[in-house]
Structure formats: C-alpha cells, structure tokens
Amino acid sequence: MVITGLALQNFRLHKNFTLKFPSKTTVIVGDNAMGKTSIVEALALLSTGDSFKAGRVEEMVDFNTDLSRVKGVIVYDDHDNDNDEVEVILTRGEINGKKTQHRLFSVNGVKRRKKDAIGKFYTVVFRPEDMRLIEGSPSRRRSFLDTLLSMIHPDYEAAFKSYEQTLRRRNKLLLQVREREQPRTSLQYWNINLARYGEILQKYRKDFVASFTGVEFPVDFEIEYDPSVISDKRIEQYIDREIASGHTLVGPHKDDIIVFLTQKGRRLRLDTFGSRGQQRLGVLWIKFCELEYITATVNARGDIGKRTLLLLDDILSELDNDSKALALSVLKNYQSIITTTDKGVIEEIEKIAKDSTIIRL
C-alpha cells in the first residue's frame, strides 16, 4: 500500500493544490509559511480523521469559504487498478444556510462513516513540537499516547471518548454534591463507568510502554509508565476529597510516562537531568518505538495490507548530525514524506533513500 496522490481545496492556505508521490521518499522543500505543515496535516487527517494541529475543524477551512476538501489516492500492492480514493470534507457546520456535519467522509465517491473511511493506513508524525515531548507537560505525553492508541485500536478510541464524557459529567456532579444540589448517590453510576473505561485505557497504555523494551537503539533509554491507578476501591478511597475539591483526583487523566537515560552506570531522569541534545535523542527513540509498535501490532493481526506513512515535518534542522542520521536511517523501511526549509539536507537524503523525489514549493 502506498499513497500516490493528494489534492487540497481551500485547505488552510492551499486553494487548489495537487501533489503526486511517485517515489518511496518525497522531500518537500520550501520557505516558512508556504504550507508544508498543512500537507503533512492533510495526510494525517486522511489516516485518522483528526488534525494534530487544529483545535476546531473550521480552523482548517479557508476563511472565505464554507468548506474544504482533502482527497488522497491509496494504491494497494502497488497495482494501479486496486486503489481507493478517500476524501474528507471539512465545513464550518453550515453550507448554503443549511446545517451540516463538520466532517464528511467518502471512499470512491460514496459517503461513509468516519470509522469506515479512515484507518486504511497509519501515520507516524514527527514535528518540532514533539521535541517538547519529554520536557513538556504530562498532558502532552498523554495526548501522544491517546493519539497513537486511538489510531491503532478502535476499542481504545471508544473507551477514551466514553471516559472523557464520564469525567466531564462526574466533575460537574462532584461540584453539585459539594453544594448539596445533588445527593452523593448520584455519583454511583458515573463511578462505575469511570473505573470501567479507565481500566481499559490503562491496560493499553501499560502494554504500549512495555513494548519499548524490545526496540534496538544506540543509546540506553528506558521508559516507565506512571499511572494514577483507577479502580472501584481507589475511587471509594478518594471520594470525600474529590467532593471537597469538586473534581476527579485519580484516573488516566492523571497518568504520565517518564524516560530515563543510563549513562556511566547511573540512571538519570531525562526531563530533569538530560541535556537538550539527550532529550531530543530521547524523543527520537520514542518515535522509533512508536513505529515498531505499529508494525508489530499490524503483523500480529495479520493485516499486512496496511502500511505506515512516516511524516517528518521540518524536524531535521532541530537535530544534531548523529540524531539526523538516525532519523533518516528508517527511510528505507517506510514510505516517507519529509518537509524542510534547508536545501542542504537534500543531498543527505538522496544518499540514503535512492528512490526519492524532490518537490519545491
């Protein structure tokens, strides 16, 4: 399976834009504010149905229009006669005065539900914002876990949505119980659901982190999953404090992951004691583990028709020479789209990826 073409209409700054990917590796070169990240965002959108950048769908729609279109051509087994044309239409919630969904999906011109249109390929995105994955907030790391696991496991995505809805409703009720507007017993149903969905999320997160041990990497990194364990017993243990504070104190929304570096026999917490270069290398290791996890999961399912698209969005300038060489070393294993402002990296990429195409915006 490969992505052979992309068409954008009124998507961010792209009015009418088409792009073909004739090679395994495509390098898109251009100055800042030329729409390189928008191309990466559109490809990820076709994979997951969601944006890694936009807080609201309408942010992706050109300001002067009601809708935008993102269309991609997916060819299976490298045969031109076996392909799908997947399209996502994005709206502001209204077209010609009529209310509509913010996202509409179709495959080969036939309207589909989101779950039936997306997931035909997987994406691993590496962009400058990911450099803060280790030193940033726990919420950034949780978002990384949720994005990946929702893409790979439909039941994780369903549990995550249900958990978020339960959490919002329960927090509202906690405030009402504190103010004696609702009885304490009104929490019982939501307590059960919080534990039910939370345990599913934490199981998948634990298994994902455990998979890191099998990934080969030239630097000795380790990762620990630091869960805020959810269970019926623990909810009961914290219920009085939660009512007093008016929000839920335990559960997956409090989880974190911690990366360690072993150096000269010492085990150092990377976010606290690692240098800037070591932290960036640690992020690269996490991305390697993400790729390996997707590959192992797909192989375990026997779903060999699905492939992973590697999207490197202007991150090469953020890496030192050794880290850059490591990042580029995986190109031979995946179809890759690389964006950069640095024309100097083209020669480096061409040395590693013989089957490559350079596109200048």
Topology record:
Layout: E1 2-11, E2 14-20, E3 25-29, H1 36-48, E4 67-75, E5 83-91, E6 94-95, E7 98-99, E8 103-107, E9 110-112, H2 114-117, E10 122-126, H3 138-152, H4 154-178, H5 188-210, E11 221-226, H6 232-245, E12 256-263, E13 266-269, H7 270-273, H8 276-301, E14 308-313, H9 321-328, E15 335-340, H10 345-352, E16 356-360
Parallel strand pairs: 3-15, 3-16, 10-14, 14-15
Antiparallel strand pairs: 1-2, 1-4, 4-5, 5-8, 6-7, 8-9, 11-12, 12-13
Helix pairs in contact: 3-4, 4-5, 4-6
Describe this structure in words.
There is one protein chain. This protein is α/β, with parallel strands linked by helices and 361 residues long. It folds into 2 domains: 2-121 and 307-360, 3-Layer(aba) Sandwich (Rossmann fold); 138-273, RecF/RecN/SMC, N-terminal domain (Glutathione S-transferase Yfyf (Class Pi), Chain A, domain 2). It contains 10 helices and 16 strands. A 6-stranded antiparallel beta sheet has the order 2-1-4-5-8-9. Helix 9 links the parallel strand 14 and strand 15 (335-340). The longest helix is centred in the last third of the chain and has 26 residues, at 276-301. It starts with a strand and ends with a strand. The mean pLDDT is 93.
